[in-house]
Amino acid sequence: MKRxxxxxxxxxxxxxxxxxxxxxxxxxxxxxxxACNKPVDTPVAAEALQDIKATDVMYGMTSYxxxxxxxxxxxxxxxxxxxxxxxxxxxxxxHVIFYDDNGRERAAVxxxxxxxxxxxxxxxAKGNVVLVVAADGRKIQSAELNYDPNRDxxxxxxxxxxxxxxxxxxxxxxxxxxxxxxxVSIRNIxxxxxxxx
Length: 197
Description:
By secondary structure, the protein is an alpha+beta fold. Helices cover 18% and strands 46% of the residues. Strands 1, 2, 3, 4, 5, 6, 7, 8, 9, 10 and 11 form an eleven-stranded antiparallel β-sheet that branches. The relative contact order is 0.09. The model has no long low-confidence stretch (mean pLDDT 81).
């Protein structure tokens, strides 16, 4: 205590300061509690994103297709949706590269969308599907393309257009091929060459 101060004066100042701080703390507490109870007016994500039932959404996805430990292909997607209750991955903006056993590119596929089985590694490409064979530059277009790595097979049950590197166009109702593109069969041919290329 300083000289000239009384116990009573010091106590009055202390009590006054404590009351001021107490009032400030009560006011802050009321503001904090009110803010916590106020509902948020803006959504966390757009309504379209909130409606997605996928467990995981991946942007810029890359996945590899393996058969007996050998990389058979690479799948790139703009967006991929993974579902816990399914082994399928839904893909938007699909780009697939198939490799031979030495790691060289066999063919490339682009499509608007598709899906891939995590269990079997099979795939379906849908919408504006374009397959380009690396060895000879031939292009095969269809609305849908199926791939089964266990049977080394590609096929489409939709209308198919094949254009060779020299410009010969062959149209058909469907096609099948092995992954080496040695046995390509187009059914119900309209224009162009023969059945097996």
